Amino acid sequence: MIRSLQAGFSRVDGIGLRMFSEDELFAIHCATLEVMRDTGLYVGSKEAREILDGAGAIVDEENEIVKFPPYLVEDAIRSAPSTIVLAGRNPKYDYVIDGKRVGFLNFGEGLRVIDPYTKEYRPSTKDDVAKAALICDALDQVVVHNRAVGADEMPGPVQPLHNAEAIFPNISKHCFIGAMNVQNFKKIVEMAAAIVGGKDKLRERPIYSTIVCPTSPLKLVATECCDIVIEAARQGITVCFISMAMAGATSPVTLAGTLVTHNAEVLGGIVLSQATRKGAPVIYGSSTTIMDLKTATAPVGSPELGMINAAVAQLAQYYLLPSWVAGG
């Protein structure tokens, strides 16, 4: 089992990076609760709205808007696990993720690759997915694997299944694979269960986690988010909620304003997960950055991305939740 060093662990005073004081974090938290209570989030799944309604949220069925009382949000934060063991196919690669331990994984998902033999810049293929997994499996610095590229030659709706088929035989570490819809998610879970010896074994040691992305601003869509969150909570599969807000486009241009939007989206997903099954494992994620005003793109190498995601990591620590943030 791998336990990384803890960033910011106070043994002696030294160099550190703190984007916000405790008071500022509390102010962001309070602003988030206000947005979730008064504005709410669009929740596209009827089943999700019913679950949230049963948990105490205020549901506007006509407009598919859900408003979250502060107690409901804070109860979900408390019930989500602070520590998760991301199990590998090989137990020696089990990775412990908690508030301050820092490990690294590869970025995903790249759309194109430079062919190592022809040097051609081309769309990625299923074979690239498999080889990328194999490379990450061999790198000690990569503690878990996120599918690096996609099987772009395969039909879009079932591409995640081909990604999973390529990754599972080539990785002995824990892996994250987005599913796109709940049907694909169930099939990927079946693959993982077949590898470990059944669904009961998978629930004991999940070798696979999934990723969902809220849609900024303030949307939890049905197919790619809510339905997967509900099923994952029921099956004991960890969900990483990765908001991809763009400051100046889909979120406010200020750092604090973007964090409030980001926080509301991620916490909305966590509330749904905990309302489905208390204690369901979740990761507070982020690939939030700015919008490049010249090109209207999301630059993941910008200094602002580093600032935003350092702040997100601090916010996750404030909530005692495991985090996953983009490093640029």
Helix/strand layout:
Elements: H1 22-39, E1 41-43, H2 46-55, E2 58-60, E3 65-67, H3 70-79, E4 84-86, E5 95-97, E6 104-105, E7 112-114, E8 121-123, H4 126-138, E9 142-146, H5 159-167, E10 175-176, H6 182-196, H7 199-204, E11 208-212, E12 219-220, H8 222-235, E13 239-243, E14 246-247, H9 255-276, E15 282-286, E16 289-290, H10 303-318, E17 323-325
Parallel strand pairs: 1-12, 6-9, 9-10, 10-11, 11-13, 13-15, 14-16, 15-17
Antiparallel strand pairs: 1-3, 2-3, 4-5, 7-8
Helix pairs in contact: 1-9, 2-9, 3-9, 4-5, 5-6, 8-9, 9-10
What are the key terms here?
alpha/beta, seven-stranded parallel β-sheet, 10 helices
Describe this structure in words.
The protein has 328 residues and is an alpha/beta fold. It has one domain: Trimethylamine methyltransferase-like (TIM Barrel, Alpha-Beta Barrel), CATH 3.20.20.480. The chain is 41% helix and 16% strand. The strands form five sheets. A seven-stranded parallel sheet has the order 6-9-10-11-13-15-17. Strands 2-3-1-12 form a four-stranded mixed sheet. The longest helix has 22 residues, at 255-276. The protein is globular, with a radius of gyration of 19 Å. The mean pLDDT is 93. Pfam families: MTTB. InterPro entries: MttB-like_sf, MTTB_MeTrfase. GO terms for molecular function: methyltransferase activity. This is Trimethylamine methyltransferase MttB.
